[in-house]
Structures are given as C-alpha cells and as structure tokens.
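Hi R.,

Here's the chain you asked about this morning:
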Amino acid sequence: MHPLKKNRPLRRIVLASAVTASGLVMLLALKPHTTPAIAVAPAPAASSSSGANSGTSSDGSTATGTKTVTGDTVQTQWGPVQVKITVKSGKITDVTAVQSPSDNPRDQEINSYALPELRREVLAAQSASIDTVSGATYTSDGYRQSLQSALDSAGL
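And the predicted structure, written out as tokens:
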C-alpha cells in the first residue's frame, strides 16, 4: 500500500505542512527588482571658491590659473550627490563631495570609505572614468555624473 494512503493521515498532514511552509518561505524570499530613477537637478555650473583664493574672478578662475567648478546635483535613491573640482593648468588638483547621502548612520558609514576612494580614483584617472566602489553603487554613480558635469563646465 502507498505510504500516503488513508491509513497514515499524520504523514499527509506533516508533508502538506512542510510543502506549504517551504512554498511560503520561497515566496517571502522573492524581492521585486526595481530600477531607481536618477534625476539630475539643475544647479549652477560654476562657483567661485570662498576665502582661500583672494584673486578669484566671477567664473571661478584665479590669477594663478586655478579654477573651481561645482557639478550638478544628482538625485540618487539614497539622496543627493554633488561634486566640486579644482583644476589648475588643465589638471584636476582637488575633488570634494559637496553633498552626499547622510540621512542615517549607514549612509555615513558607506561615505566614510567610498568618498575617499572615489577621490583617489579621480585624481589618478584625471577623468570621470572611474570604478564603482563596492557597496556604494548609487553614490558612485551620482558622484561620477556630478563629476562629469563639473568637468564639462570646466572645459575638460
């Protein structure tokens, strides 16, 4: 006689419960795939540096040929990202994140390792062709987009 016939109803109950629980666990483990919409908010393309360079003109350049340009603010899934670059003689000499996601401790933790790494990458590559930092994909993408807009504004 088959093991699941009527003389063993407890086995059928246990098997049905196990199948139901397994199916429920698999169903709850599914996560919907969503692609975040990244919008670029219009921002002033160039800004003058404050205080450090006393001979700053209205376009952000100084008498020594140093130019400071702020990129567009890029809205990511976790918050805005904006980058400011300093260019001297056609070379990127400094990169600063003006804005980055910082609403919670996890954002701050991610930025504490991602932003310095992104800065090093930019100074080494001298372009927006930089690698994404693992664990900070959205911040890296926003950083790269804002950086590219700053480079475009600086004429690089």
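Residues 39-154 form a domain with the Sufe protein. Chain: A fold (CATH 3.90.1010).

Let me know if you need anything else.
M.
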